[in-house]
Design brief:
By secondary structure, the chain is of the alpha/beta class. It folds into 3 domains: 207 residues, Rossmann fold (3-Layer(aba) Sandwich), CATH 3.40.50; 88 residues, no CATH class; 221 residues, Rossmann fold. It has 14 helices and 25 strands.
Length: 549
């Protein structure tokens, strides 16, 4: 068997049970030439792979793609995979990755699959995005220290493995996904050893239920409304909103016309949107939970209105609160279309920074000025304002999510006569903690690749680190964003919640600290930093219009 290890190189010495053919970068090409590794990472992964493959005879293709530590380039990975294909590899192990999406990298992985070569790559051990592991044509390996199975199927192209037998040595955690990836590759080698000509993906499908993307193209041709959008258009709806404070921020002038009543949590009754008198003149009760915390339906709502249809959207106990929402998976394609309308994206360094308020403020001002806007959000409160609300994708697969977002926006531009987009991107722009289940950062990356974002309005906290902020801004500009504006939230991160599984919690900052932070940030950032008052008086909107003009 020929096994390619694309990594930092393998130290040159004699090893049992395998022959090693060394390759390295020379003048931008992968050539048959030994280069001393910059570290032990590649060697350790190699040792783990051959140990787990046991007595399988193999030839190792050592693809050393680093000339100096930390200098990992997408082009180097692409060329190494191309060389592995030419060398008739059976399996390619890539225990490293990059955060930047690359169509060329995806396509060379697809070429490997078509040549019956299994590509195995390590998930990011910090729970951020990582390519090629996050591609749908690559087997992604994660670490799950609680599992009992040798290899556990996570989804169609992801497996997990326990690394409890590894310990921390010299500051490096060998339980990371790098070694896990090598271990899984070794196990796969045992499966393939006696069936070299068989379809390797069929072997893995039967053994581990791994079913990679087939490559068959299916393109959506219709722009669909969610079931809930159709219901709101045809029935009179009363809403129950959690947290109840969201009601105070509602603007009745912009609500969908069939939103006729709201629930007063203090009085325990429904009241008319128009005259605020008690009412029962509605057909359906819509419960919306905008928080990350699972909630139970209030008993007074259950008991008093049993005769009404009830629809729950958001996080509720013992029910799927997203089943009525649209999903991007409905819009499939295998290539990107050109979007013509300018895209304004509202994002945040973490959740809980009032991104929704920013989107709604801009949306209202644009509609008042006669603009037709395409609006997307993951916040279910957007349903009340005619915004296209999508279920938050807890499991993102690239490039599927990129193509799906792009396909939906392309179809929307065809069927709707809009002037611009305002998108509220759920989650944050970067990883905040290692336990978060909402894929912080990944959805932002998907939109950057899918939507050609023109303007990013980044909601930030009063205690945000300047150097971190500058890195995020440079990342956005690198991905083609024309202009970045900051809006300073009145909420800051509660440091005691950094390990909360469902995201960080925030707290309200007093005026003195807020104003000091606003002054400091404006003095130290080239980009304009707006306060919340600038949002209310129209300064943010005016600067956006000026930029687009």
């Amino acid at each position: 068997m020929n096994i390619a290890i694309i990594d930092t190189g393998i130290i040159k010495e004699k090893y049992d049970n395998c022959i090693i053919k060394h390759f390295s970068l020379y003048d931008g090409e992968i050539v048959n030439r030994y280069q001393k590794p910059v570290d032990d990472h590649g060697t350790e992964c190699f040792k783990e792979l051959i140990k787990c493959a046991e007595n399988v005879d193999m030839k190792i293709l050592d693809m050393n793609i680093l000339k100096k530590e930390g200098d990992l380039q997408i082009e180097s990975i692409i060329k190494a995979i191309e060389k592995a294909i030419k060398e008739h590899a059976d399996l390619i192990n890539i225990s490293l990755g990059v955060m930047e999406y690359s169509k060329e990298l995806y396509e060379i992985c697809e070429k490997a699959v078509r040549n019956n070569i299994v590509v195995v790559s390590a998930a990011s051990h910090t729970n951020t995005i990582s390519f090629p592991a996050n591609f749908n044509n690559v087997i992604c390996v994660k670490v799950d220290q609680d599992q009992e199975e040798m290899i556990k199927n996570v989804d169609a192209s992801t497996v997990s493995i326990s690394m409890r037998d590894f310990i921390v040595e010299d500051g490096f955690d060998f339980s990371s996904s790098s070694l896990a990836c090598a271990r899984v590759s070794g196990y796969f080698c045992k499966e393939f050893a006696h069936r070299p000509l068989d379809d390797k993906y069929k072997i893995l499908s039967h053994k581990y239920n791994i079913t990679l993307y087939s490559g068959a193209d299916y393109c959506s041709t219709l722009l669909e409304k969610s079931n809930l959008q159709k219901i709101i258009k045809n029935k009179k709806v009363a809403v129950v909103i959690y947290p109840s404070s969201i009601l105070k921020e509602a603007d009745n002038n912009f609500l969908e016309k069939n939103i006729v009543a709201y629930f007063d949590h203090d009085k325990g009754e429904f009241y008319s949107i128009n005259d605020h008198k008690e009412t029962k003149d509605f057909d359906l009760i819509l419960l919306i939970n905008t928080s990350y915390i699972d909630m139970e339906i209030a008993e007074d709502v259950k008991n008093k209105y049993k005769g009404y249809d009830v629809v729950c959207v958001g996080n509720f106990l013992n029910m799927d609160g997203s089943k009525e929402l649209q999903t991007f998976e409905e819009y499939k394609a295998t290539e990107l279309a050109v979007l013509e309308k300018p895209v304004i994206a509202v994002a945040g360094v973490c959740s809980g920074l009032k991104k929704w308020n920013v989107q709604l403020s801009l949306l209202k001002k644009m509609k008042t000025d006669g603009f037709e806007i395409g609006a997307i959000s993951n916040n279910p409160i957007g349903l009340l304002y005619g915004i296209n609300v999508f279920a938050y994708p807890n499991n993102l697969k690239f490039p599927d999510i990129v193509y799906s977002i792009n396909r939906y926006m392309y179809l929307y531009e065809i069927y709707k006569n809009i002037d611009a987009w305002i998108i509220n991107i759920g989650g944050g722009v970067d990883q905040i903690n290692m336990l978060n289940t909402y894929n912080f950062g990944k959805l932002m990356d998907a939109y950057l690749s899918a939507a050609n974002i023109d303007i990013v309005i980044l909601c930030i906290t009063p205690s945000v680190d300047i150097n971190f902020l500058k890195l995020e801004v440079s990342y956005l500009y690198k991905h083609g964003v024309e202009k970045v504006f900051f809006v300073l939230s009145h909420y800051d991160i509660n440091g005691t919640t950094t390990d909360y599984k469902n995201g960080l919690q925030t707290y309200y900052v007093d005026e003195n600290k807020y104003n000091s932070a606003l002054t400091y940030l404006n003095e130290n950032m080239e980009e304009i930093v707006f306060g919340m008052h600038d949002l209310e008086d129209g300064r943010v909107y005016d600067n956006i219009i000026q930029t687009l003009s």
